[in-house]
Specification:
single chain; alpha/beta; Spore Coat Polysaccharide Biosynthesis Protein SpsA, Chain A; 7-stranded mixed beta sheet; 3-stranded mixed beta sheet; 13 helices; 47% helix
Length: 301
C-alpha cells in the first residue's frame, strides 16, 4: 500500500524509523520503509544500516552523492508500493496516528501534503536564525496552504500516487539548495494536478547553524538565477516565487545594480545581526534580496 521513502544524508534516523515502523505494524497496513543513504559519512552509515533488520525496512547505500532531487527520483523507482510517502530524514513524528491520517488519501491521482512544525526555540543562539525563519515561513495550517495549494508545496512530508510522481518528478538539473519544491509545484500546475493539504505535520529537528543556513540561502539565490535563465523567465515560475517577482519588478526599474552596491556596503553588519541570538526576519529578507541582486551576473555553476 505505502512505501515510506526517506532520503538520508548525515543524520541518524533510528528514532524516526522505529516510530514509523511501530505505527505501520499497529495499523496493520502493507508498508515498506525505504531508506536511501546519499553517501553520508561513515558514522551515520553505521548508525542507520542496522535498521534493515526490522521487518519491511530496506536500506540502500549510495557511494556517490545524488543530491536532493536525484535521490528522491531514485527512491520512487526503487519503491514497492503504489503510494509514496516522502519524509525528510531530519524529521520527528508529532502524532501517534500520523500514518493513519494519510490512509484516506491513498487513491489514484492524489498528492497530499501534511505540513511542518517546530519544537520550542533552541537554547543555543547559533540555531536561532534557522528556527525563527522556519517557524515564520514554514509553519502554515492546511487551511492557509489550501488557498494557493501548489505554491505551498514542501517535499519534507507528502504522499503521492506513484503514477503522478513519474509524470512530474524532481528536476535533476538542479543541484544543492535549489528550490526544487517550487519547480515540482509548477509542474503539478502544468499537469492540472492540485495538492490536497491536511494538518499532519512532522517536526523539523535538523536545525543548522546560522552560518551554514546562510550559506545554503546564498546557494539557493544563485540557483534562482539559474532556474530563471533555464526557464527563460517563465511567468508561472516568476509568479510562484515571491522574491523573483520582486526582483523582476526591480529589474524593470534598473535597480538591481544599485541594490547590489548597497548590499556590499551593508552585508557584514546585516550578517552580524543574523548570526546573533535575536535575528531580524526583515533583515533576513533584505539580505536575500540583496544577495539575489548581487549574484545576478554570476556564471552558472
Amino acid at each position: 500500500m505505502i512505501s515510506i521513502c526517506i532520503p538520508i544524508y548525515n543524520f541518524d534516523v533510528t528514532e524516526l524509523v522505529r516510530e514509523l515502523h511501530t505505527q505501520g505494524e499497529t495499523f496493520g497496513i502493507p508498508f515498506q520503509i525505504l531508506l536511501m543513504d546519499d553517501a553520508s559519512r561513515g558514522e551515520f552509515r553505521a548508525k542507520n544500516e542496522h535498521l534493515s533488520k526490522l521487518t519491511n525496512v530496506d536500506y540502500i547505500q549510495l557511494n556517490d552523492n545524488l543530491g536532493r532531487t536525484g535521490i528522491r527520483n531514485l527512491l520512487a523507482d526503487k519503491s514497492l508500493y503504489r503510494y509514496l510517502l516522502f519524509i525528510d530524514c531530519d524529521s520527528k513524528v508529532v502524532r501517534n496516528d500520523y500514518l493513519s491520517l494519510y490512509l484516506p488519501f491513498c487513491r489514484a491521482g492524489i498528492i497530499c501534503s501534511g505540513g511542518r512544525a517546530y519544537l520550542d526555540a533552541p537554547s543555543d543562539e547559533q540555531f536561532c536564525l534557522h528556527w525563527r525563519v522556519g517557524v515564520a515561513k514554514e509553519v502554515v495550517s492546511a487551511e492557509q496552504r489550501s488557498i494557493q495549494p501548489n505554491k505551498s508545496f514542501m517535499s519534507c512530508n507528502f504522499l503521492i500516487d506513484k503514477d503522478i510522481f513519474h509524470t512530474v518528478k524532481f528536476d535533476e538539473r538542479l543541484k544543492g539548495y535549489c528550490n526544487e519544491d517550487t519547480l515540482f509545484g509548477i509542474e503539478l500546475d502544468r499537469n492540472g494536478i492540485v495538492i490536497q493539504h491536511i494538518n499532519n505535520p512532522l517536526y523539523h529537528i535538523g536545525l543548522e547553524s546560522a552560518a551554514d543556513f546562510l550559506a545554503k540561502i546564498e546557494n539557493g539565490m544563485r540557483n534562482l538565477h539559474k532556474i530563471d535563465r533555464m526557464l527563460e523567465s517563465d511567468p508561472l515560475f516568476v509568479k510562484s516565487v515571491t522574491i523573483m517577482r520582486c526582483y523582476h519588478r526591480l529589474k524593470k526599474l534598473r535597480l538591481p545594480p544599485l541594490i547590489s552596491i548597497a548590499f556590499q556596503i551593508t552585508r557584514y553588519s546585516i550578517r552580524k545581526n543574523l548570526l546573533g541570538k535575536n535575528p531580524s526576519l526583515k533583515l533576513y529578507d533584505l539580505y536575500k534580496l540583496g544577495y539575489l541582486c548581487h549574484a545576478r551576473n554570476w556564471p552558472n555553476d
